[in-house]
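User: Here's a chain of 136 residues. Predict its fold as tokens.
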Amino acid sequence: MRIGELSERSGASARSIRYYESVGLLTSHRRTNGYREFDADALDRIARIKMLLRVGRDIADIVTVLPCVDEPSLPHCAPARQRFDEQIERIERQQELLAGAKSLLVELRTHGTAVAALPPGDSIRAVSANVTVGVR
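Assistant: Prediction complete.
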């Protein structure tokens, strides 16, 4: 498929697709007329790139870890798996804190007093309408 169709189907801009190609995350073949031609697997690859970007990975990191998704036995994949494990642990800690914050807010809304409290020293960062606040 050509870059315009890939852009439309993947939701990534043509500029992003060209950038992903320039850093080695995507490959294309040139047609005789010079247009880029992408295989169908480019859609899945872009979806993975977008997901990794959404969870806080930067392009340099994605260039390193994306091949490990496709072929986990590559020599450099052990550190990539370790980075994934560290990020999973961080997300799980954030989920616990957010669950505590939600319970606290529900209790305050419902009864006006907080029965559940955060453990001492824990804080929650919350974003609402482009404003970040700390809850302690």
